[in-house]
Amino acid sequence: MPKSLSELEEHTQQWIGQIELLSVEEMVQYVDKREELIQQILNSDQIEINAEHFRDRIVNLLLNDHVILNKMQQLKEESLHNFNMAAMARKQKNRYEENFISDSIFFDQKK
């Protein structure tokens, strides 16, 4: 557990340091790596033996969760905004496209 916990701490600090620069893909990679490390910690035999010993380190990691959640919420809102803008553009395009049959014939009725 100490190795996985240390790796999770390093990974989290590195990510938090550059949070504003991360793309969606980098965010997904971070979350996947974080999940992998957390599973290693949970599957560790030492988790119950040394839980009290690592309590402060784990609490510090949990304090960073709000930063992570805020970034995820920001990315979600940006994606939703972009999706809505694209949907609106499609709707306007369809509204103004001409719907006519090119084989039609028009008769001039001027006298």
UniProtKB/TrEMBL annotation:
This is Flagellar protein FliT. It comes from Paenibacillus gansuensis.
